[in-house]
Amino acid sequence: MRALASRSGVSSSMISDVERAAKSPTISTLAALSEALEMPLSTLVESPEPTRLRVVKAAERQWLVEPGTGAKRDRFMPTVAGSEVEFLRYVVPPKTLAGPFPAHAPGTIEHVYLVSGALQITLGNDVADLKAGDSCSCYADLPHGFDNRHSKTPAELIIVVEPPRAAMSDRARRHERGR
C-alpha cells in the first residue's frame, strides 16, 4: 500500500479507506491510482450491474514491490461485488525477513499456502516452518511475518485474508445467504 501511495501521490490512509468502501474517491484520485497501477480507469470503477464473473489477464497484473525487503505482492483484483476476501500472491526473496506486519482486526483469518521454497511464519510468539505444499490458517490479530533469511531461494505464497464475520458488509452477507 505504501508503494502505491508513493507512486500515486494518494495517501495510504485514503487508499485503505477506498478499498474498504469507507470513502468515495474523487475522479482525480481514481485517475492517479489507475495511472500508478498502470490499468485502465474503468477497471477501478464498479459497473451499475453486478458482474458475476471478473477476469484479469496475466498481462494486466501488476506486482507491488515493498521497499526495503524487495518482497513482491500481487493482489488478485478486482473481485466480484460483495466480496470481502483479499486474495494475493506474495514472494519473499531469499535471505529476507518480510514483516512484522501489524495485527489485523480481531477475528481476521489468514490462510497461507506455500507454493515453492521453505519459510518460517511467525504469529506473535508462535512459529511454524513450512515447505512447498504446506499450508496453515491462523487468526491474524497479532503481529506476523514471513522469514526466508535462511534460504537461497525465493518463497512464493498464496494468501487469503478473510475479514471478521461482523465486518462483512450487508451486501456480502445477503450474497452469502442467497447461495
UniProtKB/TrEMBL annotation:
<dbReference type="Pfam" id="PF01381">
    <property type="entry name" value="HTH_3"/>
</dbReference>
<dbReference type="InterPro" id="IPR013096">
    <property type="entry name" value="Cupin_2"/>
</dbReference>
<dbReference type="InterPro" id="IPR011051">
    <property type="entry name" value="RmlC_Cupin_sf"/>
</dbReference>
<protein>
    <submittedName>
        <fullName>Cupin domain-containing protein</fullName>
    </submittedName>
</protein>
<keyword id="KW-0238">DNA-binding</keyword>
<dbReference type="InterPro" id="IPR010982">
    <property type="entry name" value="Lambda_DNA-bd_dom_sf"/>
</dbReference>
<dbReference type="InterPro" id="IPR050807">
    <property type="entry name" value="TransReg_Diox_bact_type"/>
</dbReference>
<dbReference type="InterPro" id="IPR014710">
    <property type="entry name" value="RmlC-like_jellyroll"/>
</dbReference>
<dbReference type="Pfam" id="PF07883">
    <property type="entry name" value="Cupin_2"/>
</dbReference>
<feature type="domain" description="HTH cro/C1-type">
    <location>
        <begin position="1"/>
        <end position="44"/>
    </location>
</feature>
<dbReference type="InterPro" id="IPR001387">
    <property type="entry name" value="Cro/C1-type_HTH"/>
</dbReference>
